[in-house]
């Protein structure tokens, strides 16, 4: 129980089912066996968002979402990244131990450069240093708390590897100061279909928010893309978005029954949509009520985050002091 799990969620969009399966659910599960530190990565969001009011709103939506899904702020240290000055300070110290080439190879940066080059622009056009140094800030999040396990979606695997590399480079230079973390990967995001069948992602505009009100949820599901096979025709469940989403939320017996119906024919997509709606309602209906209560109570949410920040700094400050000492700068 003294092993530490840590993860961050970036407040750049309303939390959706892909976030839930990819990171939130595995993180809440892990919190049963680990000392968990979960936080809202608002400093990371700054690279993407330029609208302060939007950032402010999203921070509280993420906070309300996690609490509604059962995060217990007494058991989990739940905080807002920007409340922890030690994270920023550690990021600068780690930057000095980070080979630039490591960041040149980071997928997000490389993809942005490739997109620029493909469009005939300068490779670094529109790319800010926050994007380039994103993995250093993330390493600081992870290493400040001595994290052992980092539950994340598959898309974050390389970031954890970079954090490992940075920790090892630091330790080679200064001794065994930092804990080398390991990734705990949830459901592969690529396997979680959005409403159009591509992976669920805000950038594709195909998400289903976790706490959409019932009418909106129904609209998302009704709009999901399927082929046009009539009910009686057999269908390949693995090729159908509805089934591919249903199986994550249905009990395994329900999934098997559904699979049989696809294979043998006799169920239409309209009926599957209804069953998908029901299973999502069953999973999130009650939590949605809690979400709505929390989202209307900012002072409560703010209090929870500040309480978490106090607990987080109690762990982070001594670690930062060790790091400062190790590199030879005085403590204050
Ligand atoms: N980069 C993560 C994401 O986009 C969010 C994040 C920030 C994070 N800091 C972290 C995840 C530290 C795990 C650990 O999803």
Query: What is the number of beta strands?
Result: 5
**CATH topology term of the largest domain:** Rossmann fold
The CATH architecture classification of the largest domain is: 3-Layer(aba) Sandwich
Mind describing the biggest β-sheet?
3 strands, parallel
Low-confidence residue ranges:
none
The count of helical stretches stands at: 14
Instruction: Please tell me the total number of domains.
Output: 2
Specify Rg, calculated over alpha carbons: 22 Å
Tell me, briefly, the overall form: globular
Q: Which hetero ligands occur in this complex?
A: tryptophan
Distance between the termini: 31 Å
* Strand adjacency order, main sheet: 1-2-3
Structural class: mainly alpha
Key words describing this protein structure:
332 residues; mainly alpha; Rossmann fold; Tyrosyl-Transfer RNA Synthetase; 2 domains; 3-stranded parallel β-sheet; two-stranded parallel ribbon; 55% helix; binds tryptophan
Protein described:
The mean pLDDT is 96. The strands form 2 sheets. This protein has a 3-stranded parallel sheet. A two-stranded parallel sheet has the order 4-5. It is globular, with a radius of gyration of 22 Å. The longest helix has 30 residues, at 298-327. It is mostly helical. Helix 11 (241-249) crosses helix 13 (269-295). The chain has helices at residues 17-30, 42-45, 52-68, 85-95, 100-104, 107-118, 129-132, 134-144, 157-174, 214-222, 241-249, 252-264, 269-295, 298-327; strands at 4-9, 35-40, 77-80, 149-152, 182-185. It folds into 2 domains: 4-191 and 297-327, 3-Layer(aba) Sandwich (Rossmann fold), CATH 3.40.50; 211-292, Tyrosyl-Transfer RNA Synthetase (Orthogonal Bundle), CATH 1.10.240. Bound molecules: tryptophan. Residues 6-8, 10, 41, 44, 138, 141-142, 150, 152, 156, 159 line the site of tryptophan.
């Amino acid at each position: 129980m003294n092993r530490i799990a840590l993860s961050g969620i970036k407040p750049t969009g309303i939390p959706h089912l892909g976030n839930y399966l990819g990171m939130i659910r595995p993180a809440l599960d892990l919190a049963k066996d680990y000392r968990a530190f979960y936080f809202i990565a608002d400093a990371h969001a700054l690279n993407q968002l330029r609208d302060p009011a939007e950032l402010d709103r999203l921070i509280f939506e993420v906070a309300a979402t996690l609490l509604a899904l059962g995060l217990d702020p007494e058991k989990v240290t739940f905080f807002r990244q920007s409340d922890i000055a030690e994270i920023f300070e550690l990021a600068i110290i780690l930057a000095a131990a980070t080979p630039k080439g490591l960041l040149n190879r980071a997928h997000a940066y490389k993809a942005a450069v490739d997109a620029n080059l493909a469009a005939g622009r300068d490779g670094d056009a529109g790319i800010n240093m926050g994007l380039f140094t994103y993995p250093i800030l993330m390493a600081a999040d992870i290493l400040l708390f001595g994290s052992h396990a980092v539950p994340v979606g598959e898309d974050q695997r390389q970031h954890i590897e970079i954090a490992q590399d940075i920790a090892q480079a630091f330790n080679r230079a200064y001794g065994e100061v930092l804990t080398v973390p390991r990734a705990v990967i949830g459901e592969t995001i690529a396997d979680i279909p959005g409403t159009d069948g591509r992976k669920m992602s805000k950038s594709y505009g195909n998400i289903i928010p976790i706490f959409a009100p019932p009418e909106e949820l129904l609209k998302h599901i009704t709009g999901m893309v399927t082929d046009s096979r009539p009910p009686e025709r057999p269908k390949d469940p693995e090729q159908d978005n509805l089934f591919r989403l249903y199986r994550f939320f249905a009990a395994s017996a329900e999934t098997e029954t559904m699979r049989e119906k696809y294979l043998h024919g006799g169920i239409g997509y309209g009926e599957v949509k209804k069953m998908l709606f029901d299973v999502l309602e069953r999973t999130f209906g009650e939590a949605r009520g809690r979400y709505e209560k929390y989202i209307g109570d900012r002072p409560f949410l703010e209090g929870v985050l500040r309480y978490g920040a106090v607990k987080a700094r109690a762990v982070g400050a001594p670690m930062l002091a060790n790091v400062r000492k190790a590199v030879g700068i005085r403590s204050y």
